[in-house]
Amino acid sequence: MKNEGIKPVRLVKSANRREFLKRGTLSVATAGLLLVGCNEDEDMMPPMMGGVSLGSGDIGILNYAYALEQLEAAFYAAVLGGGYFANANAEEKTIMGDLEKHERAHREFFKAALGNMAIADLEVDFSSIDFNSRTSVLNAAKTFEDLGVAAYNGAGQFLESSDFLLIAGKIVSVEARHAAAIRDLINPGSADFAGDDLIDANGLERTLNFTQVLTAASTYVKTPIDFSQLPS
Predict the structure, then answer these.
(1) Which residues make Cβ contacts (< 8 Å) with residue 200, sequence separation at least 6?
(2) 94 with 156: CB under 8 angstroms?
(3) How crowded is residue 14: how many other Cβ atoms within 10 Å of its Cβ?
């Protein structure tokens, strides 16, 4: 069923896609690390044989977000080194460059915020993506951005700290802008910037739980991730 709710026409116009992305990113950048309460004197996350353990509570959820940001940052770094990017037009090079900077900033934010409680670097495998193909790259970007938004939507309800919830809200708004920008590159000028696969008949955006997100991510993340201490 087509969502008939109010939605702006051509939300991401080709002339101002970058400005559209920039407005959301600045709010996250100005948030700083002051809201994060991890103590450097705390023990590091206990190692897991052959993988990582996210931990529990708010720390576990922040590590969950950190894992996803690692995946996205690694993806866009690979995009910038591929044939699609080398042959892309100036606009798409600018957008992909901006997305790489955003995701790298998100990754480094969580790494610094978590301190000794951060999980180790994850091993990724993008062999199923053809980085020389525009279609393959943009479809993969849509998958990652949509997954990220749904993941933050699903995890936010479990955060106990209002400070952490504020940060998550800022970051998910940027991820949503990414998702809209990618969809506009795939289908320029479309008013359907949030597809029917994302918005239900009530006009609400989908959420995914920890199992759903990490199962989807496991296609690209080779490091086993133990999330058994997160809410079910």
Answers:
(1) 3, 206
(2) no
(3) 11
Q: Identify the three-state secondary structure at position 96.
A: helix
3-state secondary structure at position 221: strand
**Residue of 212, 218, 217 lying closest to 230 (CA atoms):** 212
Per DSSP, the three-state class of 124 is: strand
> What is the C-alpha separation between 15 and 6, in angstroms, rounded?
23
3-state secondary structure string across 50-67: CEEECCCHHHHHHHHHHH
E strand residue ranges, the chain:
52-53, 225-226
Please name the amino acid found at residue 88: A
Q: In this structure, what token pair is assigned to residue 24?
A: 């959301």
- Here the tokens at position 228 are 């058994």
**Pair 154, 213: CB distance under 8 Å:** yes
Write down the pTM of the prediction: 0.81
Q: How far apart are CA 217 and CA 104, in angstroms?
A: 18
Output Rg (C-alpha) for the chain, integer angstroms.
Answer: 17
Structurally, at CATH architecture level, domain 55-222 sits in: Up-down Bundle (1.20)
Tens-digit pLDDT profile for residues 83-115 = 999 999 999 999 999 999 999 999 999 999 999
Q: What angle do CA 34, 155, 222 make, to 5 degrees?
A: 95
